[in-house]
Design goal:
123 residues, 6 helices, single chain, mainly alpha, Helix Hairpins
Length: 123
């Protein structure tokens, strides 16, 4: 809030006479609400608005992006990818009993599971 007061003090120096917001011509602060111009008109209720038809430039946007020289080395990926490739060997190496025994934290984990009465201590 103090920062806002400082900005207001900069935008409107205290030595200048205070102007109302409607007569002020220049301000460093953006208005809190968007200001509509007097020439803008709102649609009449009950009138139909035709849907915007995309141009051919908008339809070819993906090809333009991928052909851009800055993105030549970058791979653009869309959609889900198959990232789970199960392997019993990797699972045993990472989460197996022998890997738990080798580290201090792993031994603590096994002791907690033993104390709790788990049927399976690890893979």
């Amino acid at each position: 809030m103090n920062a806002l007061r400082c900005l207001r003090a900069i935008a409107r120096p205290s030595t200048a006479p205070r102007l109302t917001p409607s007569t002020r011509s220049i301000s460093l602060l953006a208005p809190r609400r968007p200001i509509l111009s007097s020439t803008s008109t709102l649609p009449v209720p009950g009138s139909t608005i035709s849907p915007a038809i995309p141009s051919s430039d908008a339809l070819n946007l993906a090809s333009k992006i991928s052909a851009h020289p800055a993105l030549g080395s970058m791979q653009i990926r869309c959609g889900p990818r198959d990232t789970y490739n199960p392997s019993h060997l990797v699972r045993k190496r990472r989460h197996g009993f022998l890997s738990r025994i080798r580290t201090k934290k792993g031994r603590k984990l096994l002791m907690r599971r033993l104390k709790k009465g788990r049927w399976n201590l690890s893979h």
